């Protein structure tokens, strides 16, 4: 399974990101095939923003007011369609799926002294 990729949209006040599964569906959609269900294109059905700007760093789900201010609507379908149409592919996303500890042998507070 391929890693999710990001579509980056440079907004006026905030930058927005959506995660997609495969580029082929996005390219077909961008060329006018709007019969592809959005759920088949996206990895996760949410719009994210980076509070510090850009496409890297800690992402938060975009608030309704952020969506409304940038896109003139809080309709997630319309926002995603705009980002798909006007955004730019930003490479593979570094998405952590679950956590793994690198050193379970050291307990809390252990200093080794």
From TrEMBL:
One Pfam family of this chain: SBDS_N
Gene3D superfamilies with a match to the protein in the record: Ribosome maturation protein SBDS, N-terminal domain
Domain Ribosome maturation protein SDO1/SBDS N-terminal span(s) in chain numbering: 5-93
InterPro entries membership: Ribosome_mat_SBDS_N_sf, SDO1/SBDS_N
Region annotation Disordered: where it falls in the sequence: 91-113
The name this protein goes by in its record: Restriction of telomere capping protein 3
Organism in which the protein naturally occurs: [Candida] anglica
């Amino acid at each position: 399974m391929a890693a999710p990729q990001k579509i980056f949209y440079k907004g006026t006040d905030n930058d927005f990101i959506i995660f997609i599964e495969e580029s082929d569906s996005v390219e077909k959609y961008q060329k006018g095939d709007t019969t592809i269900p959005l759920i088949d294109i996206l990895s996760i059905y949410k719009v994210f923003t980076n509070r510090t700007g850009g496409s890297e760093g800690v992402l938060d789900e975009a608030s309704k007011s952020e969506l409304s201010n940038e896109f003139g609507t809080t309709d997630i379908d319309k926002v995603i369609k705009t980002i798909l149409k006007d955004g730019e592919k930003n490479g593979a996303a570094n998405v952590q799926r679950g956590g793994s500890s690198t050193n379970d042998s050291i307990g809390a507070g252990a200093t080794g002294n």
